[in-house]
Write a structure and sequence with these properties.
13 strands; globular; alpha/beta; 34% helix; 291 residues; nine-stranded mixed beta sheet; four-stranded mixed beta sheet; 10 helices; single chain
Length: 291
């Protein structure tokens, strides 16, 4: 089984701040660092560190070679990354004293992916392989439809949430992994139970993982539900926590098939990630998670 993550590649410019900047305010940063990031890159590294066979596809500009190199160093196949974008995507991230973050994205090359590039990448994959998507690249509908026709399992993390997601045909997905805010945007409901009920009612074959911050996470499909508490941790930076959770959950649920164990390992991995600064660099190895 191969995991194809057709996802974003960003440079993360991280500013440590006493509080998030408000309208009309000029605020001095307490610190600055630059990291490799993008939900796509983070999730690929999490998948790889969890033990999966990962292939990353996407697009960068000539200023993004370091991102491709970082994925390659993590043991990820980077054949599907195009380098002819205008400018590499990047993010401006504020991290406050409580470790919470607020993020401004510029899509750049992530939004320049063509259908012909997608066709070329997907030609190397077949039924039984897994396509992982986030909402930081263009042509998601085409990707979902193309992978569905090939018999690939399709996973969507609808972040960052926008109107495109509300118009998608989610019936072609195998897994939808989202947080409570995204769940409310898609279903119109605020309570976790109502979000899950609506999604399964609308898409009976869908498997849903709803992350709830300090309240843990919930898995739901048409016949069963499982809950997982968080592992307590000192929160330093939450930037890649959700991506770490997703990568570890998918690697374990597809390779092992046990939802409860996948939730447990994913939650533990995320608890380690929030105790470290940075995005990709905060993602733990499988040895750290199971020790």
């Amino acid at each position: 089984m191969k995991f194809l993550n057709y996802g974003s590649l960003n440079k993360d410019k991280v500013y440590t701040v006493p509080h998030f900047v408000t309208e009309g305010e000029t605020l001095a940063s307490l610190g600055y660092a630059e990291y490799s990031g993008g939900k796509g890159l983070n999730q690929s590294i999490a998948l790889a560190r969890a033990g999966a066979d990962v292939h990353h596809a996407g697009k960068i500009g000539q200023d993004g070679h370091s991102l491709k190199e970082e994925l390659s160093r993590a043991g990820i196949n980077v054949k599907g990354i195009s380098e002819d974008g205008m400018i590499t995507g990047h993010a401006i991230i504020q991290v406050n004293e409580n470790g919470e973050n607020c993020i401004l994205l510029f899509g750049g090359a992530n939004r320049e992916i063509t259908e012909s590039e997608i066709d070329k990448v997907l030609s190397d994959f077949a039924e039984g392989d897994v396509l992982v998507l986030q909402n930081e690249i263009n042509n998601l509908d085409y990707l979902i439809e193309s992978a569905y026709r090939k018999g690939m399992a399709v996973v969507l993390n609808p972040s960052p949430m926008d109107e495109r997601v509300k118009k998608m045909d989610l019936s072609k997905l195998d897994y939808l992994i989202l947080n409570a805010v995204e769940g409310r945007e898609i279903t119109g409901h605020g309570e976790p139970k109502d979000i899950l009920d609506q999604l399964i009612n609308d898409y009976p074959t869908l498997k849903v993982v709803l992350t709830l911050g300090v309240a843990g996470s919930v898995y739901r499909d048409a016949s069963q539900e499982f809950r997982q508490d968080i592992f307590p941790a000192e929160v330093v930076d939450t930037t890649a926590a959700g991506d770490t959770f997703l990568g570890y959950f998918l690697a374990n649920v597809f390779m092992d098939g046990k939802v409860t164990e996948a939730l447990r390992i994913a939650s533990k991995a995320a608890s380690i990630a929030v105790s470290r600064r940075g995005a990709a660099k905060s993602i733990p190895t499988i040895d750290e998670v199971i020790s």
